[in-house]
Amino acid sequence: MKMKICLVGEAAVGKTSLIRRFVLDDFDDKYIQTLGTKVSKKELKTNHPDLDLELKVDMTIWDIMGQKGFRELLKEAYFYGAKGIVAVCDSTRRSTLDDLDDWIEGVYSVTGKIPIVFIANKCDIREKMEFAEAEMVQATKAYDSPFYFSSAKTGENVETAFQSLAERVAKERLARREPVEE
Q: Considering just the CA atoms, what is the radius of gyration of the chain in Å?
């Protein structure tokens, strides 16, 4: 099954670092702002328990720069064809969690409702965290989506979050009887 996944969130929340950790199992603590978009790929396997089926997933992961003006300018091209969203906030900056609704609505305006997984990144800096699980529960409730506190630096919950999204996308697409080789 092929699936296009888009990462959304404000600048410097760690979207590029999460992708690098997931795809290459690597981390670089030098901050380099994403200019435009960057596309990465990773193959993974996922189970579909209802159908007793193991799927090979070809995940195409789109990284976008975090500036709102850029999002508005290119959202049609960037979000078109997306099957899932990784909504990323920085657990050390509360405002980045609050801003995720705007990012998600921007995606939904192009794709309609698609599966989401929320990641509160940088949980390795626990002493600087500005929100906890209760705030994540509240923020994700409206989207009926799971969330993970993760760290691109240590790798904590990165694989789990992307795997969870792959499973949610696969389950939804199979339920809708969508073609899997788009």
A: 15
Lowest mean pLDDT among 2-6, 15-19, 32-36, 72-76: 32-36
The CATH architecture one would assign to domain 2-175 is: 3-Layer(aba) Sandwich (3.40)
Q: What digits encode the pLDDT tens for the residues 77-103?
A: 889 999 999 999 999 999 999 999 999
Q: What percentage of the chain exceeds 70 in pLDDT?
A: 88
Alpha carbon distance 89, 100 (integer Å): 7
Instruction: Decide: 41 and 23 in contact? Cβ < 8 Å.
Output: yes
Parallel, antiparallel, or unpaired for β 2-8 and 84-90?
parallel
Longest dimension (CA), the chain: 46
Q: What is the rounded average pLDDT of the residues 113-118?
A: 98
Please report, for the chain, the start and end positions of each structural domain, with discontinuous segments joined by +: 2-175
Burial call 122-142: b when 16+ CB within 10 Å, e when fewer = bbbeeeebebeeebbeebbee
H-type alpha helices, the chain? 15-24, 68-79, 94-98, 100-111, 133-141, 158-175
Exposed (0-12), middle (13-18) or buried (19+): which is 12, by Cβ within 10 Å? middle
Tokens representing 102 are 């705007």
